[in-house]
Amino acid sequence: MATYKEAGVDIDAGEEAVRRIKGPVRETFTPGVLTEIGSFGGLFHLAASGAMRDPVLVSSIDGVGTKLKVATRVGKHDTIGEDLVNHCVNDIAVSGARPLFFLDYFATGSLRPDVFEAVVLGFAKACKANGCALIGGETAEMPDLYKTGDYDLAGCVIGIVERDSIVDGRDIEEGDVLLGVPSSGLHTNGYSLARKVLFDRYVAADTPEALGGASVGEALLRVHRSYLDSIQALIAEDLATGFSHVTGGGIEGNTRRVLPDGLDIAVDYSAWKRPGLFRLIQEVGEVPEEDMRRTFNLGVGLVAIVPAAKKARAKTVLGALGEPAFEIGRVVKADAA
Amino acid sequence: MATYKEAGVDIDAGEEAVRRIKGPVRETFTPGVLTEIGSFGGLFHLAASGAMRDPVLVSSIDGVGTKLKVATRVGKHDTIGEDLVNHCVNDIAVSGARPLFFLDYFATGSLRPDVFEAVVLGFAKACKANGCALIGGETAEMPDLYKTGDYDLAGCVIGIVERDSIVDGRDIEEGDVLLGVPSSGLHTNGYSLARKVLFDRYVAADTPEALGGASVGEALLRVHRSYLDSIQALIAEDLATGFSHVTGGGIEGNTRRVLPDGLDIAVDYSAWKRPGLFRLIQEVGEVPEEDMRRTFNLGVGLVAIVPAAKKARAKTVLGALGEPAFEIGRVVKADAA
Q1: Chain A residues in contact with B190 (beta carbon < 8 A)
Q2: Residue A3: its pLDDT value, please?
Q3: What does the DSSP assignment read for A173-199?
Q4: A158 chain-B contacts, CB cut-off 8 A
Q5: What residues of chain B lie within 8 A of the CB of A45, using their CB?
Q6: What are the pLDDT digits (tens) for B65-79?
Q7: Same fold for the domain at B2-165 and the one at B177-336?
Q8: Do the chains contact at A59 and B158, CB–CB below 8 Å?
Q9: Are B241 and B169 a contacting pair, CB within 8 Å?
Q10: Can you give the residue ranges of the PurM-like C-terminal domain (chains A, B) (predicted)?
Q11: Which residues pair with A8 in a beta bridge?
C-alpha cells in the first residue's frame, strides 16, 4: 500500500491509484489550502476566502445512499463522487454559503485501486467545479463489515457566509413564488424504492421508451447537480427569500423546513412535465402518488422562494445560467394549504 | 421514523431514540452554534470562538475501523462514539487547533434505536468533554450494504488555530526529547490483527492474566483518549516543538510525519513498560516485534517533541494533568538513526 499524505489528504491505497489521484486532488486546492504543512489534519487559511466582517461556518455531512449499489451493479464509479460533493454543497449553499473545503470517507471490504481512483476523481472533479478544496480523506478497509466489491462513502463540506447574508427564510411571505430548478434525475434519494421497482423489471442496460434512449443504469446514475451558481446568482441580486434542496422528503417536506411559522406552501404538481424516469418508476411499481411526492424530487432539484414582484427577474437570471426555472407553487397561509 | 432537526443535526430515527438524544446533543452546543436557524447545514458563528488575528481552520475525517466489530460482538455501543470524536480531535489538536464542531455519519442495515442512541450519546459525551459542538449528523439505513446489526461510523471535526501558533514541527531540532503520553489501549488501530489473534484464543468475557482483571472485551473497548488538554497545556508554555498522534503506523510512522528534512527519531522501546494487552497480543499471536511497532501504539497515544532544556517543565505540566509522561527517545540526525 502506498500512502498519499498532503495537506491532510491521507490516503492509503495502491501505488498506482495514489499516483493517479495526486494531480487531480492537488488541482482542487484553492489559495486557502496550506499545502506546505505536512499534518494530521487539513489546514485552510480563512483569510484566503476573502475578507469577511462576521463569518459563519456552514457545514454538512452526508452519504449517497444506495445509489452506490447502482454504481456497483453497473460497474461505473466515476460519477458517484460528484453526487456526494454536489449533494453536500447544495445543503450549505441554500443558506447562502460558499464551500471552502470537503473531506471524504471511503470504506470498503477490500480496496480495488481502479474503483478507488474513479471515486476520488469524481470528488476532485466536483470539488473543482464548486471552487472547493478536497482537503482531507480517510480510506478504510474493513473486510468483516463490507462485502468484496462493496463500499460506502461519506462526505463533509465546510462553507462560509457573512452572518447578515445568511438566507434563513425569515423574510418569506405569503404570495412568494416557488421557482423550481430542474434536477437531472433522482439525485441521491429514493434509490431503495427505485432499484426495487426497476430492477425487478429491467436489467441496467435496458432502454425503456420512457427514458428517451437512455438505459436504466444511465438514468439512475445521472449526476446530482450542484445549484451553487444558481443560488449565488439569485442572492447577488437579492431575488430570493429562501431556498430548499430537494432530497429525501420531496419538494414539500424540504421546502417546509425553511418556512417561518404560520406559512405553508401549495405546490401544483401539474405545473411541470415530470421526467420520464419518475413516470416509469410510478407506472412500473404502481407507486401511489403520495409516496412519489414524499420520496422523489420529481424533476425539481432546487426550489427558490422568490417574491412575486421579483419572479420575472429571477427567471431571467436563472435562464442566463441555462436554468429553465418554472413556477411550481406559492407560499400560502398555514391554514389555507 | 421521527426526525430530529436542529442546527443542522438531521436525524431520522425511532421517536424514542430521537427524544432521548435531543437533550445530550443540545448540551454540546457552544455559544457559536446558531440554533435559532432551522437549516440544511449546521451553522457556527466564528466570532464566538474568540477573537483571532489570522485564523486557520484545521479539519479531519476518520472512522474507528473494526473496533466497531468488537462493540457489536460485546453488545456495548456507548463508548465507540467517544473513540471517534477523540480520534478526530487528536488529529487536529496536534497542529495546535482547538475543536469547534463535529459532524457524524451513522450507516447501518436496519436502525436499532437502542444502539443508535448509545452511539450518539458517546458522540455527545466526548464532544462536550472536548468543548466541541455536535452540530450535524446523517443517519443512513442501507439494508443492501450492511448486515443486520452492523453499522459503520465516520466523523469529521473542524477546529481553529491562529496561523502563527500552528505547531508544524519546523522548530524540531536534533536532541529534542520524545515524551510519551500513555494510551488507554489500542485506541482505534490494529483491531483487525488484535481481533484475529485474541478471538481465535478467547471469548470476549475471558480474563487472561495479562489483562490484570479486565476481560478481553473490556480491554479492547477502552476508550481512545483525547490529548487536547495535554497538548494545549504544553503549547500554553511553549514547551513543545511538535506532536504526533499515534495511530496506524505506530510511534515511528506517525512521529516521522512531523519531522523536518534531515532529522529522524530513535525510539528506545525498552524505556517504558508495555501494557499487558500488547504483550498478550504479541505472545498469543506470535506477532513479530516489527509488526507490533508498525501496527500498535504500544502504550503511547501521544508523542510530544520537547527541547531537552524544557523536558523537566513539560513533565511537570503533564504530571499536573495526571499524565505520567515518560521519555521514549530522541530526535537524531537522519543518517544516525
Answers
A1: none
A2: 44
A3: -TT-EEEEEE-SSSTTSSHHHHHHHHH
A4: 57, 59, 158
A5: 54, 56, 163
A6: 999 999 999 999 999
A7: no
A8: yes
A9: yes
A10: 173-335
A11: none
Percent of all residues in chain A with a pLDDT value above 70, rounded to a whole number: 93
Residues of B in contact with A192 (CB under 8 A): 142-144
Q: Any idea which fold B2-165 has?
A: 60s Ribosomal Protein L30; Chain: A; (3.30.1330)
Q: Which residue of B has its CA nearest to A147?
A: B145
Helices B191-201 & B67-74 angle (0-180, nearest 10): 40
Please give the residue of chain A at the shortest CA–CA distance from B88: A41
pLDDT at B1 over 50: no
How many residue pairs bridge chain A and chain B with CB atoms within 8 Å of each other?
219
Whether the predicted pLDDT of B16 surpasses 90: no
What ipTM was predicted for this assembly?
0.94
Would you list the domain boundaries of chain A?
Answer: 2-165, 177-336
* Residue pair B30/B125 in contact by the 8 Å Cβ criterion: no
Which helix H or strand E contains B81, and what residues bound it?
Answer: helix B80-93
The alpha helices in A186-327, defined as continuous H runs, are 191-201, 216-221, 228-236, 250-256, 276-285, 289-295, 311-320
Domain A177-336 sits in which CATH superfamily? Answer: PurM-like C-terminal domain (3.90.650.10)
CB contact under 8 A, A41 and B105: no
Suggest the residue from A33, A58, A90 to mutate for an interface test with chain B (most B CBs closer than 10 A): A58
How many angstroms separate the CA of residue A111 from the nearest CA in chain B? Answer: 14
Contact flag B66-A144 (C-beta cutoff 8 Å): yes
Chain A nearest C-alpha distance from B211 (Å): 26
Kindly indicate the confidence band of residue B36, based on its pLDDT and cuts at 50, 70 and 90. low
Place of cell 516489527: B290
pLDDT above 70: percentage of residues in chain B: 93
* Helix spans in B226-323 (H): 228-236, 250-256, 276-285, 289-295, 311-320
- Among B38, B40, B56, select the one facing A34 at the smallest CB separation: B56
- Report chain B's mean pLDDT, rounded to a whole number: 93
Q: How many Cα neighbours within 13 Å face the side chain of B176?
A: 28
Residue B231, pLDDT > 90, answer: yes
The C-alpha cell 479539519 sits at B59
CB contact under 8 A, B105 and A43: no
Which pLDDT band, with edges at 50, 70 and 90, does A1 fall under?
Answer: very low
